[in-house]
Design brief:
globular, single chain, BH3618-like, nine-stranded antiparallel beta sheet, 1 helix, about 150 residues, mainly beta
Length: about 150
């Protein structure tokens, strides 16, 4: 087991559970290794904590929890190779969540994270010709729909 000190306090983690981003994140290319933080609250959001630079942590979620019609193209050979995954490997698509100072919440649907649990590798991919935005607000919930 290893330990890091973060905004969440001292965290003990098993290096075998690190999620490795070979190229880092877009704009943060030197952030490579993350751990999933245990969720204290039930819900669709969770934290990934960088172990290379403990000052970085991100909230992520499965975007289909909020956008049922969110469709990401199947990853090509290059992405599968970066993930060390095969065509039939299980992959998860995640979106980085931002809570803005005005408490509005947005998801980065333009640059999702592909995660392959079999290899514990992930990559962030920019969807060039997709109709999504990096700051997509959560859908409004109509009181009559609840």
């Amino acid at each position: 087991m290893k330990k890091i000190t973060t905004r969440f306090g001292e965290i003990e983690y098993d290096p075998a559970n690190i999620i490795h981003f070979p190229e880092g994140l877009v704009g943060l290319e030197d952030l490579h290794d993350f751990i999933v933080m245990p969720n204290k609250k039930k819900g669709p959001l969770f934290w990934i904590q960088c172990v290379d630079h403990p000052e970085y942590a991100f909230v992520v979620t499965d975007p289909t929890n909020f956008f049922l019609d969110y469709a990401v193209p199947e990853p090509g050979e290059e992405i599968l190779e970066r993930l060390k995954a095969g065509k039939n490997s299980q992959l998860f698509v995640l979106a980085i969540v931002t809570v803005h100072p005005d408490q509005k919440i947005t998801l980065n649907l333009k640059a999702p994270l592909f995660f392959a649990p079999e290899s514990n590798r992930a990559v962030q991919v920019i969807l060039e010709n997709a109709p999504y935005d990096v700051r997509t607000p959560l859908p409004e919930v109509n009181a009559s729909e609840t």
